[in-house]
Amino acid sequence: MSTSTEQPADLTAATTLLRFATAGSVDDGKSTLVGRLLHDSKSVLADQLEAVEHASRSRGQEAPDLALLTDGLRAEREQGITIDVAYRYFATARRRFILADTPGHVQYTRNMVTGASTAELAVVLVDARNGVVEQTRRHAAVAALLRVPHVVLAVNKMDLVDYAEPVFAAIAEEFTTYASELGVPEITAIPISALAGDNVVEPSANMDWYGGPTVLEHLETVPVSHDLTACHARFPVQYVIRPQTAEHPDYRGYAGQIAAGAFRVGEEVTVLPSGKTSTITAIDALGEAVDIAWAPQSVTIRLADDIDISRGDLIAPAGDAPATSQDVEATVCHVADQPLAVGRRVLLKHTTRTVKAIVKDIPSRLTLDDLSQHPNPGQLVANDIGRVVVRTAEPLALDAYADSRRTGSFLLIDPADGTTLAAGMAGESFATAKAVVTVEDEEGWGF
To answer: How far apart are CA 213 and CA 194, in angstroms?
Structure first.
């Protein structure tokens, strides 16, 4: 763990910000819920609301369609669906929020991965008339895989099932059982009607059988426990500063953003993948020297020794450095239209480092219906979740994703056109890794 014993001065303020994402199947009402949250929490400007009212009237709707507050693309408005991730910022007297409204269509599951990758909470919507469907299970699996610590099950459109408690109870039980098997640590079920506003911001008069919090009340009070300063200290080098001017003839600094933990002047550190050790002599933040810096600050670190350090290297405490390896075992969400097959040449991007790699094995693919593992599928297609074994050309210093979402994640990229193929989480997850199978490489990338 980080050697720092001091608490950052602004840590309390930082915990008042909650990043959360919405997910769910098509037409479950995600955008309407977000619009209702923004509208009823008085987070919509008058001109925005007027534009939504005008657009709604032009479509023959008497009441304003609050989904239009987030569905900004023309194609989204024409089709009545969400295509891209819509980020919105709003605040109440108790907390600030960054919200990612993600699409529900199967072909846009990749966008849900993007929206949930930095979220501390995920709101999964379910249409009370349809219950838990395949896309609901897919989104629950993605939330579990991305280690989102809090999941809210919002059973929407309760007004269309006469606000019946048994309907809500059955859906909540099914989803909770499924998500618990995935390892989701906390699940909160709330019956709502986003269209009518029941239990979104204000308690519903139509569901007196429900005594829990509204959606906004839960968002305002849920503990934000993901503290980057308490994680293993990691500093990916982004840029080497070497001015070589008359004023700074010997200045050599390593600039970047602290991914996790804290660093202090005088601390002994290890540089990876070389394994060289040195001592921090100075830390510069915003042009001023400081004694300590913590995630997610952007700083320049200076060391006592002249070590060959370049972009992509990782600085970590000498007593808490991750092991380096060329064999990466991980769970991935495949996000590209083209399949990911055994033997595929890829680029692996981890923090600020990008290296050549080969997919050596795909031990299993997750079957969402019963959470079983389909062994040796040979390839992953769009929106598949599976285990992969990747061999890299150079050693990488990856943490397990369970220990660090920042330094345990990576991307697989097509070297031909730069397309993102898959988002990966190193180490174990709810999937079980299989033995590595060596595959002959016919393209000349033999590592």
So the answer is: 15
Q: What is the mean pLDDT of the chain?
A: 83
Q: What is the mean pLDDT of residues 235-247?
A: 87
Which pLDDT belongs to residue 436?
28
* CB atoms inside a 10 Å sphere around CB 250: 8
Give the whole-angstrom CA distance, residue 64 versus residue 50: 9
On whether the CB atoms of residues 34 and 98 are closer than 8 A, the answer is no
Q: With H, G, I as helix, E, B as strand and everything else as coil, classify residue 340.
A: strand
Number of neighbours of residue 444 by Cβ within 10 angstroms: 6
DSSP character string of 93-115: SS-EEEEEE---SGGGHHHHHHH
Whether residue 447 is predicted with pLDDT greater than 50 in this model: the reply is: no
The residue whose two tokens read 């008042």 is 16
Torsion angle of alpha carbons 436, 437, 440, 445, nearest 10°? -20
In the structure encoding, which two tokens stand for residue 123, read together?
A: 């709101």
In sequence order, which residues have a C-beta less than 8 Å from that of residue 329 and are 6 or more positions away? Answer: 387, 388, 389, 426, 427, 433, 436
Measured between alpha carbons, how far is 240 from 428 in angstroms, rounded to an integer? Answer: 34
Write the CB contacts of 166 (distance below 8 Å, at least 6 apart in sequence): none
